Structure formats: C-alpha cells, structure tokens
Amino acid sequence: MCDNTPRKINFGPGPAQLPIEVLHNVQKEFFSFDNCGSNVMELSHRSPAFSKIIDDAEKDIRELLSIPDTYAVLFLQGGATGQFSAIPMNLINLKPSQTADYLVTGYWSEKAAKEAEKYGKVNYVIPKQEKYHDVPEQTTWNLTDDASYFYYCANETIHGVEIHDVPVLPNKAQIVCDMSSNFLTRQVDVTKFAIIFASGQKNFGCSGIVLVIVRKDLIGNAMKSTPVNFDFKVQLSNNSMYNTPPTFSIYISNKMFDWSKRQGGIKALEKQSKIKSDLIYSAIDQSNRFYLSEINPSYRSRVNIPFRIAINGVPDEKLEKLFLEEALRLNMIELKGHRAVGGLRVSLYNGITIEETEKLAQLMRTFQTIHCVEAA
Ligand SMILES: Cc1ncc(COP(=O)(O)O)c(C=O)c1O
C-alpha cells in the first residue's frame, strides 16, 4: 500500500534515492515478476528467471563501461567494507614483497589501509594528512618498487576529495580502486585497473551488493586463510552464487543499469554529474565566502560536496542548523555533514535530478540573501 506522503529529495551519502521510474517499475512487478506469480525475493537463485536477471545485469554493466572479456564481473556481499579485507587477501601474494601501497586521501581509504595491515605490509604512500582537503603532488609519493598493488579511493564520500585522473605509476603496480561513490558518474577506462569495486547503495541500487570488476589473470592467488566467500576464484567459478546471493539487490542493480543505459549511458551520466555539481559549486563560489568549500579545487568531488556556512569566514553552526530546517521544510533531507567533518554535505548521485539540484542551489542563494544581510 502506498500513502500520499510527498517524496523527499534525498541528498544523503547513501543509501541514495532511486529514480522514480525505477521505483514505479519495481512496484509494478512487486507481486509477480515477469508473469511468474512471485516477487523476485521469492524466486530461487537457481531459477531461469533469476539467472536471466543476473546475466542481464552483467551484460548491461559490461556494455556501460566497455568491460573487456579479460575482466570478471562479480556481484558480492559484505559491502565495500568487505572488499577492504578481500582485496589484500586475494592480491597481497602477487609479489614476494607482500607489500601494498595505499594512497590515503580520506576516511574510506584510511579504513581500507588499516584493514589491509592485518594481511600484509602496508606502505603509506603519503604522510598522514591532518585535514583531507588536498592530495599531495604525485612526485612526492613514496612508492614500493615491487608492490603487490596500489590502492586508492577515487572519491572520498565524507571528505569530498575526488581524484579525477587515474594515477600513472612509474612502478607499474596493479591499480585497485574504490569507486563506491563516483561509480557510473564518469567515463572510466577499465583496462587501467586490476580491480574496481563499488557498493550498490549510491549509484546503482540498494545496499547488500558490491560489484567487483577484476582482471581475470589476477584471480587464483588468494591467501590460504581467505574465507571461501571472499575468494574471487570461488566466486567466479560459481557465477557469484557460491552461496545464496542478495537476489533483490541484484534485481535492483539490473534495473539501474538498464535505466543508466536509457539515460544515454556513461557519457550522459557524466554530463549530468557535471551540470549538477557546477550548480552547487557556483552557489558556493559566488557567495562571497558565505558558503565555504575547503577542498583544493583540483580535487573537488562532483558527487559529495561538503561545505560550511560562515560569518566573516568563521563557520556558524546556528546558521547551518537553520539551513537544515529550511531545507527540510522544502522536503530536502540528509544534508548534514558527517560528524568527522561537520557542516553540511550535498550528495549528487545519479538518482538526483538536475531540477532537484537546481532547487537546492536556489535555496542556497535565497538563504544567503536573507541571512547574510541579517548577519551583517
Ligand atoms: C567510498 C566508500 N567506500 C566504502 C564504503 C563502505 O561501503 P559499505 O557500507 O557498502 O561497506 C563507503 C560507504 O559509504 C564509501 O563511501
């Protein structure tokens, strides 16, 4: 049963809002998927109907990102956090050094590096940053000659630091990338990576699923102690179904990949992402420092934008609280910044439309007009 509550605009960091047409489509199929008389949740994962869903999902993501046959596409459980362990377990043995290079540019890469320390040697490529506002020049990075792999997070969801170009490494290490929050928001040359992984709940569906794109020749090196579900070789040979997979999450991913294709594919999604983030950064940059973004502009995220509201350059929590209340009155939610950073944060995943972003940018301008004068 549906109630008549108007839908909120969810600018949160995830789980994110889904496109309304995807929700309608899911609703239509809720009691009977494809005339089979059951919801997808009620189907056997070994049934032909579900096999078609997972096969279609793989086909669509391969098409969206031009993923070559030399790469496996795995639909796994345990979230992106699970991959913080699975990646070292599967790759640390690639080189005798058993050392992995980690570029720590925010909360999530820091977590990944800490977890990897359990399984091998971790070399921190740059010194610990006091505030994650920038990425030191690559010429200063301390890389390991024979690293098993190089790890980075393409978009730090909490700190709003995005690395726009894939690093070109002099040691030619295998590159592993957490793309959880900017997956499908920009074009990517998959062949530059050993592994790309991303959780579903931001740009391609709901929680419960992590997509792992891994070059096939790297599979088969897992440590002996690797839990069977985290062993890429086992998952590949079982078509991501060594145990019961998160069938509903895979079904939603399939819907989202299909929706992404119908948007015009990755080029169109990247264009939308640029337009949306430009709207918010324009409101910030034209605010005469009423709104503050502290990130080096070269590393500003197009997807997660943390900012402060300030009087005379000093963040003002009272104004920030007022902004959240005003946003809520206009049906916009989840704009509070992460506790590690404070202030506000806008997340512009693919399910957020340009029109919705315009509403928020408009609110920012109106709010500034009212409160900047009051504060003066
Ligand atoms: C960049 C990034 N990596 C990893 C994670 C952890 O994802 P999960 O909660 O699916 O484990 C998140 C969650 O927000 C994230 O933003």
TrEMBL record:
<dbReference type="Pfam" id="PF00266">
    <property type="entry name" value="Aminotran_5"/>
</dbReference>
<comment type="pathway">
    <text>Amino-acid biosynthesis; L-serine biosynthesis; L-serine from 3-phospho-D-glycerate: step 2/3.</text>
</comment>
<dbReference type="GO" id="GO:0030170">
    <property type="term" value="F:pyridoxal phosphate binding"/>
</dbReference>
<keyword id="KW-0718">Serine biosynthesis</keyword>
<keyword id="KW-0663">Pyridoxal phosphate</keyword>
<keyword id="KW-0032">Aminotransferase</keyword>
<dbReference type="InterPro" id="IPR000192">
    <property type="entry name" value="Aminotrans_V_dom"/>
</dbReference>
<dbReference type="InterPro" id="IPR015422">
    <property type="entry name" value="PyrdxlP-dep_Trfase_small"/>
</dbReference>
<dbReference type="GO" id="GO:0005737">
    <property type="term" value="C:cytoplasm"/>
</dbReference>
<dbReference type="GO" id="GO:0006564">
    <property type="term" value="P:L-serine biosynthetic process"/>
</dbReference>
<keyword id="KW-0028">Amino-acid biosynthesis</keyword>
<comment type="similarity">
    <text>Belongs to the class-V pyridoxal-phosphate-dependent aminotransferase family. SerC subfamily.</text>
</comment>
<protein>
    <recommendedName>
        <fullName>phosphoserine transaminase</fullName>
        <ecNumber>2.6.1.52</ecNumber>
    </recommendedName>
</protein>
<keyword id="KW-0808">Transferase</keyword>
<dbReference type="GO" id="GO:0004648">
    <property type="term" value="F:O-phospho-L-serine:2-oxoglutarate aminotransferase activity"/>
</dbReference>
<dbReference type="InterPro" id="IPR015424">
    <property type="entry name" value="PyrdxlP-dep_Trfase"/>
</dbReference>
<dbReference type="InterPro" id="IPR022278">
    <property type="entry name" value="Pser_aminoTfrase"/>
</dbReference>
<dbReference type="InterPro" id="IPR015421">
    <property type="entry name" value="PyrdxlP-dep_Trfase_major"/>
</dbReference>
<feature type="domain" description="Aminotransferase class V">
    <location>
        <begin position="10"/>
        <end position="360"/>
    </location>
</feature>
